[in-house]
Amino acid sequence: MGFSIELEEWVGSVWHRFITRHASPDFPEARVELQTLQRPLALLYRALGGAAGVSLEAASARELLLRRNLLQQVAGTCQQLPVAWCDSDNLRLPASLAVYPETALNAELYRWLALLAARSGEMRHWARDNQRWTCELLDAYPALQQRYTNLVEGHLLLRPDPAQLPGAEGELEDALQQALRTPGSVTSFPRSERAPWPLPLWLYPAQNLAAPQVAALGDEDEGALKAPDSAQKVVRKRASRVEENTGKGGLLLFRLENLFSWSEHVDLDRCGDDSEDLDAARVAEDLDELSLSRQRVRKGGGLKLDLDLPPADSDDIPLGEGIKLPEWDYRRQVLREDYVNLQLMLPRGAEPQPLPQRLAPLARRIRRQFEHLRSDRQWQRQQPQGSELDLQAWLDFHVERQHGQCAERGLFMEQRQNRRDLACLLLADLSMSTDAHLDDEHRVIEVITDSLLLFGEALSAVGDDFALYGFSSLRRQQVRLLELKSFRQRYSDDTRGRIQALKPGYYTRMGAAIRQATRQLAERKQRRKLLLLVTDGKPNDLDLYEGRYGVEDTRQAVLEARREGLLPFCITIDQEAGAYLPYMFGANGYTLIREPAQLPIRLPQLYRQLTQR
User: What's one Pfam family here (predicted)?
Assistant: First the structure.
């Protein structure tokens, strides 16, 4: 009996693989994965004028009402197919392409879609707009004409024959093939009850990813439903809002003694469970569309509890009133004044602590290295007298004299002791993701704590003016900035105790933290001012501060810091940082620590390199 069941399962799996393989229109042997081309495609998209804040990710499959052949109907395939689309926030390309039997053509199709997306705009008519964008792209870059022709000719061989399609379907297919051959030549397209077979060379209408996720809850609940962070690559799902069935209106029979008293039962409205359900996550990954619902009660008819923040007696200690800060809204292209509330805080339970013994040998070595910077002598150029000849000054003098311009300048170099005129403020990301484990023994928050301790030892040895802060956020009304060491305080066991009392916080509203740090550094009188940010991920928060919105606001805050004469620099351990940090901080404004455990050693070294430029 058991053997027959196993044989039946084996035959079924073989049949499934056979019919699925023969029903698929793709060419698996020539498949190209988006992940292998993601970075060059993003660079190509932005080089041709695409918005730098737009994220390039994989597109989910879209349901299309296609005419499938008998084999495809039996196999149950081709009901949903991934297509490319683009809007102001997203560029979504298929996770893989196997449209052509040649790998080179599939890779070329990826590049064509990135180029077309860079020229695209608001879509009003699918076919006419794609033709117009194609014409504009080919007119601007004639060298693409042959590549486009190769893609079209290769694709037309695989498309259905219009003569074999019934009525309007055949007419529509014929018009689309003509539009592919000669873009801009077709302005009227027949209507058909069936969708045409997907055109991989064109962009499709954008999917509204955000609207179903953000509920109209008013100012206090302007949050989006988000999945927990994961190291796996995920594809955003289509979502729809559905009404929840409350069960009212039917006949209900019950016994009165089964009723709870007020002290026994409280109806508490929760949006979801805090714990992570791995089975639900796997099911959600398999689903093509997620249906979201929310139970609502009248504002005056229920008990509302804030379960996000700890009680005041166990929370960190607030310092003074909150600080109102602006935030950049890229959608409106406006800086919204007094939009964010930032609260300065002290870590609760922090007591003076010495440097941990395990860090003492490394700290002594770092202090010796940085003490040399205090006594370093530097060459002063263009001096009227000195021990060495300044060859560059002499050459400039000689050239000016040949042209009849002889300005007075010193021609010597002298080595002198200089005082380091430098102020530094370090911001440490303390979001909840820092609670993650790097290995069986260490968490991210512990690596950040060690980094701050060694960084403080290094800067106190060299004598530079510096401040240390940690930050996290919980929506725009609660941006938390933990003061570990201000510019007024000296580095002591009090500071070490505060650092060792750090705990993972909430989310990562980078823009507000950078703006407050900019204000503090702008008040310093030093000539050089360095703003360091240590983080493990992208800017994000529970409200709209996610995706492009958070990236654009952080970039704007960095630009504001540069206008104040600061040097912002980001140190990250996020392996995907290359997709967004160059846009926020510039190509030379960040560094990636590929081995996070090395951050405590690398941070002082990076500071030394940055301050010796």
Answer: VWA
User: Helix/strand/coil (H, E, C) string of 259-279?
Assistant: CCCCCCCCCCCCCCCCCCCHH
Q: How far apart are CA 107 and CA 109, in angstroms?
A: 5
How buried is residue 322: exposed, middle or buried, by Cβ count under 10 Å (0-12/13-18/19+)? middle
Give the pLDDT band (50/70/90) at residue 265. Answer: very low
Give the CA count within 13 Å in the CB-facing half-sphere of 138: 16
Distance CA 294, CA 301 (A): 16
Residue type at position 528? R
Instruction: Report residue 506 CA to chain centroid gap.
Output: 17
Q: Is the CB of residue 459 less than 8 Å from the CB of residue 490?
A: no
Helix, strand and coil in the chain, % to nearest 5: 40, 20, 40
Model pLDDT for residues 182-202, shown as the tens digit of each residue: 998 888 888 877 778 788 889
> CB pairs under 8 A, 24+ apart, for 183-187?
183/130, 183/131, 183/132, 183/134, 183/135, 183/138, 184/131, 184/132, 184/134, 184/135, 185/131, 186/127, 186/131, 187/128
**CA 208 distance to own-chain centroid:** 19
CATH architecture classification, 326-353+421-611: 3-Layer(aba) Sandwich (3.40)
Phi/psi at 521 (5° precision): -70, -35
C-beta separation of 123 from 85 below 8 A: no
Coil, strand or helix at 318: strand
Amino acid at 542: L
155 CB-near residues (< 8 Å, 6+ apart): 99, 100, 180, 199, 200, 201
Q: Are 59 and 93 in contact (CB under 8 A)?
A: yes
The count of residues in the chain is 613
Spans of all domains in the chain: 24-181, 326-353+421-611, 377-417
SS3 94: strand
CA distance 91 to 608: 39
Q: Following CA atoms 509, 515, 521, 523 in sequence, which dihedral angle do they give, to the nearest 10 degrees?
A: -140
Kindly give, in sequence order, each residue whose CB lies less than 8 Å from that of residue 259, ignoring residues fewer than 6 positions away. Answer: none
Cα-to-chain-centroid distance, residue 501: 29
The candidate with the shortest Cα–Cα distance to 280, out of 350, 207, 225, is 225
Hunting for tokens 């302007």 — which residue is that? 222
Least confident of 106-120, 215-229, 259-273, 324-338: 215-229
